[in-house]
Amino acid sequence: WREKLAARTDVVGTRLTIDDQPCTVVGVMPPTFSFYPRQTQLWILAGPSSKPPREKLIVGTFARLKPGVTLSQTQNEVEAIHRAVQQHDPEERYRTAAVFYLQDQFTFLASRTLRTTIGLAASAVLFLLLIACLNVGNLLLGRSLTRGSELAVRAALGSSTARLMRQLLTESLVLGSLGAVGGVAIALGVIRWFNRANPIELPVGSEVRVNLTALAFSGLLTLATVLIFGLLPAVKASRVDVNSALKAGGRSADRQDSRQHLASAFVTVEMALSVLLLAGAVLLVSSLYRMENASLGFNPHHLRFTSLYLPADRYPNDAARVSFYKALLRALDRTLPDKRTTLGSELPLYGGGSSVLEIDGEPGRQTAEMNDVGSASIGPRYFSVLETHFLKGRLFDDRDQAAAEPVAIVNEMLARRYFSGENPLGKRVRLRNETHTNPWLRIVGVVEDSKHSSLMHEMSWQTNPLLYRPVLQAPTEQFVLLVRAHNGTVIRGVEAALDTVDSRIPHSDDLESMESDLSRLLSFARFRAALVAVFAVTAILLAAVGLYGVI
Q1: Angle at which helices 253-292 and 114-145 pack, to 10 degrees?
Q2: Rounded to an integer, what distance in angstroms lies between the CA atom of residue 491 and that of residue 304?
Q3: Which of 2, 5, 392, 481 has the smallest C-beta neighbourhood within 10 Å, fewest atoms?
Q4: Tens digits of per-residue pLDDT, 383-395?
Q5: Do 328 and 496 contact (CB within 8 A), yes or no?
């Protein structure tokens, strides 16, 4: 509403065209609204006019169950509906209809990302608070023990035990409150600076602010620390023999020794917690360093991209899509003659796979392997634009037209896993998954492995067996246009090329940067490492202060 429609107040009722379909704006959602998928920016009512290609029809149905209805009952009803659909469409036998609680799905994703980060942060905070409380306790104990003579004089003058305890507790509460207020002020200042300076890219949806629950917890912990370490000296002072204390000047050897032992124990615990935090920070920082300096199998610098989609009504089959790809590549060569451009069905960094690889003549080979082979359709110059090292064989060229023999290029991991000790060139393979089996493909080349991210492995890159096909033999409706350029001004050339071929193809107003995408993928790892590192350094400083006080 703000970026595309200039925040017009009369936007409701405005007629728009979305993917060649006219629609009317009936409402504007608040900027904080986010559901499923998270990146969605507009919602269109699904109905008989919404007819995406069947092979791409993945429907997520959301329902709020009536009281008393169980998940198993819902699953049985959905399966009955799906069986009826299968009778009219044989292809549906490859698909499933699963029912699950949405909260479980969200919780699963959070358990791999936010939950781990929050758990680490909470542990670090607890360690830091414990160290700070031990330091405060040490200070209060030392302060009370040095006032032995004063307390003895007060007791000799008639002060009751309750009055002495009340005085010590009041002083401790004042000191603790001043410290707590100062801590909150520092926290507010640091958070305000953090939100303005943005020293580290936060994960999408994350917000740094002071939480009332956290404040209440900190306040209760401060109160408990003050009561414990303020009350104990008061109780001990009430039991001291006044005559002995006055003669010794408030400083007996036994009291000094007990205080020294207790202070040493506190400092020992502080140092142990600090070293534990520091070890965790070193592990996280070293993992982050390995991720940031790992060879990704391509060069993300100055690599820009935009995602495009071919409407099914204008490009209903492979022949129409192949014709579009050829025309677009020719147009890009004209509008961006000094830039390297290519196409691909998948972005680097987003890999993985779910297919089983079959090898011609060896029907039993694939049974021992996992269904983790991925595939991608790529255009000419793909490996050149990505700056991926080609190892052996040949690249795709003009011989690999739609009617020619299907061919493939595999990555090093696939060659190593399935053809260990053999030359994969010339071998015929095909991919099979739950829905269909691809044609036999002849391997003509091998390239180096490329890394990709994974929700299940946030602190390391993953590598999967990967098979590449020429886009003219495996055209897809959705693809990514990749451009090697030092700035984003090439979008004008991309727009000119698209307008030449099909001006109605929806596209972004700018090219995204692969470096920015990489930074976003690393944001959780960076945030986690930075958070624990800051807490570890603070813990070491606090422990050093405590150690200095003992020495």
Answers
A1: 160
A2: 10
A3: 2
A4: 999 999 999 999 9
A5: no
Place 167 in a pLDDT band, splitting at 50, 70 and 90.
confident
Cα–Cα distance between 449 and 480 in angstroms, integer? 20
**303-309 and 512-513 as β-strands: parallel, antiparallel, unpaired?**
antiparallel
Q: Judge contact between 23 and 9, C-beta under 8 A.
A: no
Q: How many CB atoms lie within 10 A of CB 390?
A: 14
CA 110 to chain centre: 9
Give the bridge partners for 469, in sequence order: 377
Q: SS3 for 113?
A: coil
Q: Is the dihedral of CA 298, 301, 303, 307 positive or negative?
A: positive
Phi/psi of residue 430, nearest 5 degrees: -155, 160
**pLDDT band with cut points at 50, 70 and 90 for residue 21:** confident
pLDDT interval class at 250 (50, 70, 90):
very low
| CA-closest candidate to residue 447, choices 382, 522, 392 | 392
* Angle, alpha carbons 217-277-185 (nearest 5°): 40
Residue type, 216: A
Rounded to 10°, the helix 523-550/253-292 angle is 160
Residues 6+ away with beta carbon under 8 Å from 253: none
At 255, the pLDDT band (50, 70, 90 cuts) reads: low
Going from N- to C-terminal start, the domains of the chain cover 1-51, 303-524
Burial degree of 101 (CB within 10 A; 0-12, 13-18, 19+): exposed
| Joined tokens for residue 324 | 């579009």
Tell me how far the alpha carbon of residue 217 is from its chain's centroid.
28
In b/e form, how buried is each residue of 400-413, taking b as 16+ CB within 10 angstroms?
bebeeebbbbbbbb
DSSP state of 370: -
User: Residue ranges of the alpha helices (H) in 466-522?
Assistant: 491-502, 514-521
E-state strands within 19-175: 21-24
Per-residue model confidence as pLDDT tens digits over 74-88:
999 988 988 888 777
Residues 6+ apart with CB under 8 A from 393: 409, 425, 443, 444, 445, 446
Q: How far is the C-alpha of 299 from the C-alpha of 285, rounded, in Å?
A: 23
Question: What whole-number distance in Å separates Cα of residue 271 and Cα of residue 135?
Answer: 11
Q: Is the pLDDT of residue 92 over 80?
A: no
pLDDT confidence bin for 367, thresholds 50/70/90: very low
